[in-house]
Amino acid sequence: MASIASIETGFYRVPLPVVLTDSTHGEMRAFELNTVRVRDAEGAEGVGYTFTVGRNGAAVDAVLTREIAEIARAKDADLIEKLWTELWWELHYGGRGGPTVLAISAFDIALWDLKAKRAGLPLWRLLGGYDPKVPCYAGGIDLYLPVEELLAQSDDNLRKGFRAIKMKVGRKSLAEDVERVAAMRRCLGDGFPLMVDANMKWTVDEAIRAARALQPLDPVWLEEPTIPDDPAGHARIVREGGLPIAAGENLRTLWEFKQYIAGGCVTYPEPDVTNCGGVTPFMKIAHLAEAFNLPVTSHGAHDITVHLLAACPNRSYLEAHGFGLDRYIAQPLRIEQGFAIAPDLPGHGIEFDWAGLGSIRAQ
What we know:
Elements: E1 4-21, E2 27-40, E3 45-52, H1 57-72, H2 80-90, H3 98-119, H4 123-126, E4 133-139, H5 147-159, E5 165-168, H6 174-188, E6 194-197, H7 204-214, E7 222-223, H8 231-241, E8 245-247, H9 254-262, E9 268-269, H10 279-291, H11 302-309, E10 318-320, E11 334-336, E12 339-341, H12 354-358
Parallel strand pairs: 4-5, 4-10, 5-6, 6-7, 7-8, 8-9
Antiparallel strand pairs: 1-2, 2-3, 4-12, 11-12
């Protein structure tokens, strides 16, 4: 039995080198990082994390420190499904989503890291193994960059080894969006994988109009065209817009994904391992998508998610978006000719610079 001996949490504010803005979230000057380190009775340690775009990190920290640590201490860390279910229902009444599910995500990631380390396997192999080379795109928060800077950013991403790129849409004028996507298409060339992301900006009718206007520019997908609370609206956009739709970074449960996938509301399901409940539900979502013959993509936390998609035969693209964490990780994600490479180290392979993080600990 891998008894949980201690749970150590951390809460940090990661400063961003530039202020980021998209169509809905306002100005983002720092991201919040919540970490959890789970140690078993033999001294082995698993590490997990989640993040926010600047708010609610203190609430996540409170759930990890006050609730999850109390519930999970001395439990068997190998019984991940049992622990996940126990946490879900003990915390359900006061936190069916939001900070609670982000906290469960971080803890679940730590358990899987611990389990893989104890087995001496990289996480992607422990999860079944498919291919450590995962197609990858560069994601950026670039809605208000001038076109010249947008194109320069793309050139930089190409130099880094990316062979697919995502850009933001959702400016005040649809004509501006079309003009910017057209500029990117001219720069990248026909056939180059280009995704567009609206961050929930539009109504359903606006999204259908935008999808039809963008269709001639051949984006791989239109991401989050409207709010996640409207699956019927997403289904209309899929049917009437003429573009594949990616969605899911703001869905929080397996059951929400079931509603989207079974309801024809999404073409590329897009779970985020740090906010959908962790590795445990992420893999269930990916397999559910496979059962419906859908490709799965991802949002955020690429250092962990590369392992998950490396275990999925129906994976499409991994989103690479470091949010400033690369400065605090020993070996950032490796990109080679458009592929992210899942590490062969035991566990997920993320080694945080804990001393460096100490300097940005949240008060």
